[in-house]
Amino acid sequence: MSQKEYPYAERFGVNRQLPEHGRPRAEITAELNEMAREEDGFWQTGQCSGTMYCGDMEHYAFMTEAFGLYSHVNVLQRDICPSATRFEGEIIAMTLDMLHGDAARVSAGPLTRAGKAAAGGTPCGTVTSGGTESILSAILAYREWAREERGIDRPQMILPETAHAAFEKGAHLFGVEVVPAPIDPVTTQVDLDFVRRAIGPRTAFLVGSACNYGYGTVDPIAGLSELALASGIGLHVDGCLGGFILPWGEALGYDIPVFDFRLPGVTSISADTHKYGYGPKGSSVLCFRSRDLREKLYFLRQHWSGGKYFSPGLAGSRSGGILAATWASMVSLGREGYLRYARAIFATAAAMQEAVRSHSELRILGQPSFCFSFLSDVFDIYHLNDALRTRGWRLNGQQHPNAVHMCVTRPQTKPGVTEAFREDLAHAVAYAKAPTREKPFTGAIYGGLPRDQPEIEAMVRQVMVGLLDAHQDVPAE
Ligand SMILES: Cc1ncc(COP(=O)(O)O)c(C=O)c1O
Predict the structure, then answer these.
(1) In this structure, which CATH number among 3.40.50.300, 3.40.640.10, 3.20.20.60, 2.70.98.90 belongs to the domain 82-328?
(2) Pick from 249, 253, 343, 447: CA 20 to 30 A from residue 1's CA?
(3) Is ligand 1 within 6 A of the CB of residue 209?
(4) The overall pTM is greater than 0.90
(5) Is the bond preceding 407 in cis, omega lying within 30 degrees of 0?
(6) Cα of 274 to ligand 1 centre, how many Å?
């Protein structure tokens, strides 16, 4: 990456070493403000899919205040921050309540402990740094359960093709084998018959999404729950994206299938407070049906020379600021606030889908709600994406098949955004039918990578590595 491309190099220079003398705080905050305000302007138009879930600057300022009071606190040291226990316990309790954790008290679930009766009746959770850490933690817990209680050396998970990439990351890190499960191309839900047949002696757990990132559709969790119960294995429901909004959709009367602890086979659910929980970036909740499973994540060193060490999960030191701000976000909104936000988001998503359906050239995949994906059987959808880009929209690109998705968040619920979407979509459809470029610009970046061409795959890999390097390195002088 050249000095010119390196962000803000020309305006603010590049720090290749610590400045000899500290700079004045006012100068630094002015610089930070300038960059932040410009970058916020990008999504504040309401044209950016996902990622900015709340979008309310007053809410952000309120969370920043809560964060500031505890940012310097390490929550591992509970003797000096008892408040962290209050924040963490209540974040988990409120999340469990939303996901019907009480049902777990009645029904123990499919997991058994070697030599003991079925454990359960103790819904619980842990707060992590985000969806990926929640998923990694769930995989680790099931691996340990499978090894310790079942003696399975190399456990397997049955993973729908639409499940988030974090599952494969966890499988890679923790030596768990993935059995990929195909989806129905029309509903985009996992093929239950395949899952039933794929369950074997090494299966530790099943995965279902509520909802998946790509299509915003919910897997047949009730069916997966039955399979998990019948086989005595776990079922993780990935509610990282939907966990904090689908329950409110159900309460509002939308057709949202049950996906939580009311289903007796569901043994864990991830739900991200930093998405539709409207908390600060860096928090998620991993809920368990039973304490036995959560305990598999605990790391204890009784004889460490540094003293007795015990941590609840993957992280070591954690900032109290994240817990405080997440808690503050949840209690400041309350059920009424979450419902109010969800009402506007579901209505906006329905209106946007209506706009998509008004074009016979476009097809929405499955039966989504707040997040939806569409493709075209008539033209390359990335031509349409190119045209939307030039009008300021940032949808997310998908492949296998090529499609684009819109994950509706609060910034889209502002007046005028749906109308602009309708108008710009019509323009983009017209463009895609008679594009001025042969190959769409955005298609080269996000579009379908051929599966059977290793040279192209290697080239794309190189580009991806180059991007990650560039995101972390200052340019050479
Ligand atoms: C369904 C789903 N699961 C997991 C994740 C991973 O979450 P994170 O990016 O917070 O690690 C995402 C992120 O968008 C998601 O949509």
Answers:
(1) 3.40.640.10
(2) 447
(3) yes
(4) yes
(5) no
(6) 10
